[in-house]
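Example 3.2
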Amino acid sequence: MSANGGDAYDPQDLYPMEWKPTEQYDTQYYVGDCDYSSWDRDKAANVRERKRMCSINVAFMELRNYIPTFPYEKRLSKIDTLNLAIAYIGMLEEILATEQDPHEFLQNTVDMARQNHPNTSVWSTSDLLARLSWIDWVRLGMEPVV
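Structure, written as tokens:
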């Protein structure tokens, strides 16, 4: 039997008199009520996060259009896309920085990499070396490197 004289269960009976809460539950945290302003904020945050992820995914799709990939391979993961883009950019930077003919420079670098020469370029140790045959050399204004 509860302290208020009824037969119904009263959670207040579990506390000694000095521990009993002075007010009812705060409606913001009470399970029975819903704080719609919090729900709206959460929904807005979810929408912003979806838009952010969508823009990141679009950026990766665009980046995949500029790096050499095998025509038969599945879509590259984000980390593989970034690693390949870094290697490709490194290769293009070295082409621009060299005094040599670009085709000759690339052919020498590829030959050194295939012979496991210790002074080969960083990019030539990546997946990019296997993908050289898929680079659009004409678009870069160069002869194909084999």
